[in-house]
Design goal:
Elements: E1 4-9, E2 14-18, E3 21-25, E4 31-37, E5 43-51, E6 56-60, E7 63-65, H1 77-89, E8 91-103, E9 112-123, E10 136-141, H2 145-154, E11 158-159, H3 162-169
Parallel strand pairs: 4-9, 6-11
Antiparallel strand pairs: 1-2, 2-3, 4-7, 5-6, 5-10, 8-9
């Protein structure tokens, strides 16, 4: 195998090359989590935030990078999922069930996403993320999800595919 070459590195991203292939990775983590959260009222809890790389607001499942902050390095994956869910949505999960571990974009990045299903949700606060995050929390009835997402897409928002992946994996 050809040697690993670092082409560029910043605080948040590293551009590397092996042979003829350039790819990115995060300096502190090759993992992230995503969480499917369904309330007792059969509503999916989604988040909306502006994403600089795509230059628009995106509707997503709650998610976060594993170990991107010093105080959370070494945290178990399910622990990261539970913490991110609480930070972003205000919900505490009674249990966190693994769904799948999969590359986010295998031709572009080394990142693996660990998808979870959060069950037995209890609302503790309004969510919205931590300082510096502009997260809007949405509660969407599962029965009307397709139409709601179509409306958001028609309004110019991007819809993250992980919503559909998690629902399918969890049997919805």
């Amino acid at each position: 195998m050809p040697a690993l070459e670092t082409l560029f590195e910043s605080k948040w991203i590293t551009l590397q090359r092996i042979g003829h292939w350039d790819f990115v990775r995060r300096p502190h983590s090759d993992s992230c989590v995503g969480i499917l959260a369904i309330t007792p009222e059969d509503e999916i809890v989604l988040v909306e935030q502006f994403r600089i790389p795509v230059q628009r607001r995106v509707i997503e499942i709650p998610a976060g990078i594993v170990g991107d902050e010093e105080e959370h390095r070494g945290e178990p994956l399910a622990g990261t999922a539970a913490r991110e869910l609480l930070e972003e949505t205000g919900y505490r999960a009674g249990s966190i069930v693994p769904l799948i571990d999969t590359p986010t974009s295998a031709g572009l990045t080394s990142e693996i996403i660990h998808l979870f299903h959060a069950k037995d949700l209890v609302k503790e606060h309004d969510g919205g993320g931590v300082a510096g995050e502009d997260i809007i929390v949405h509660h969407v009835p599962l029965a009307g999800l397709r139409e709601w997402l179509r409306e958001k897409e028609a309004a110019g928002l991007a819809i993250d595919f992980k919503i559909f992946s998690c629902l399918w994996l969890a049997g919805f």
